[in-house]
Amino acid sequence: xxxxxxxxxxxxxxxxxxxxxxxxxxxxxxxxxxxxxxxxxxxxxxxxxxxxxxxxxxxxxxxxxxxxxxxxxxxxxxxxxxxxxxxxxxxxxxxxxxxxxxxxxxxxxxxxxxxxxxxxxxxxxxxxxxxxxxxxxxxxxxxxxxxxxxxxxxxxxxxxxxxxxxxxxxxxxxxxxxxxxxxxxxxxxxxxxxxxxxxxxxxxxxxxxxxxxxxxxxxxxxxxxxxxxxxxxxxxxxxxxxxxxxxxxxxxxxxxxxxxxxxx
Length: 264
Ligand SMILES: CC(C)(COP(=O)(O)OP(=O)(O)OC[C@H]1O[C@@H](n2cnc3c(N)ncnc32)[C@H](O)[C@@H]1OP(=O)(O)O)[C@@H](O)C(=O)NCCC(=O)NCCS
Prior knowledge:
Residues 114-206 form the 4'-phosphopantetheinyl transferase domain. One of its GO terms (biological process) is lysine biosynthetic process via aminoadipic acid. With 264 residues, the chain is α+β, with helices and mostly antiparallel strands. The chain has helices at 25-29, 34-41, 46-67, 136-143, 147-168, 237-243; strands spanning 9-16, 76-78, 84-86, 95-101, 104-110, 115-121, 179-181, 191-194, 204-208, 215-222, 229-232. The strands form 4 sheets. Strands 4-5-1-11 form a 4-stranded mixed β-sheet, with helices on one face. Strands 6-10-9 form a 3-stranded antiparallel β-sheet. It starts with 8 loop residues before the first strand and ends in a 21-residue tail after the last helix. The model is unreliable at 243-264 (pLDDT under 50).
């Protein structure tokens, strides 16, 4: 691995997906595969397409940099629920997970532990809409909080739950009432109960992410209870913009490019 990452540290990368200018996007798109360009082409709204390209390119550049692999040559494979991982052909066990929301992206990278990450924007909630996302215990604890804390606490719980199901890799197909996480700022993020997984709650480590308001976020890692710390990488969006073939400046990519898949 070119950029060493020790087992007891999980790197966190957070970047703004809106910082890529229209003129930089073609360079970012050069780092994507045909499948990813095809996915980008299917977005109805240009803003969503840009965000997707900036997110995927960032993922490829960052993960590729750990392995010394050119972003576009990073081979990803997917489990049955769509979780990407590094394909066996790249011969690495590096773990990573991406989340994007409201124009921000967060990526967790670990040399050792299965990870899941989730970020959300704290938005107004629709009355009665939250119960299907939470376990009965979480709902009860949330409802008992002062009204002014409710909304942020809900999103915080939600990212704890989603980071966990993303770490497992099955996403929202995992029954959300089969586990409890801690609720509210008074308690550290933690799994309190876990019914439907081979691991014990104590095998999982949860961390609240340091991310600017109005975002909240959680990292979940299957650490087996071993101590780990988060390392926030401060190479920001410029890292992505400068390293993605700056000499190329055409968007969408030409039809005869190897990685082209119908962007028009
Ligand atoms: C994974 C899931 C929870 C993501 O929810 P979200 O809040 O909309 O998205 P986030 O921004 O946090 O995460 C998206 C990223 O997580 C990763 N991801 C995708 N599926 C994943 C999964 N099952 N587990 C973990 N990570 C996953 C991808 O990198 C994705 O990025 P992309 O959208 O650029 O491809 C949700 O999409 C889900 O439950 N998926 C499973 C769907 C399923 O069961 N599919 C079966 C048939 S494919």
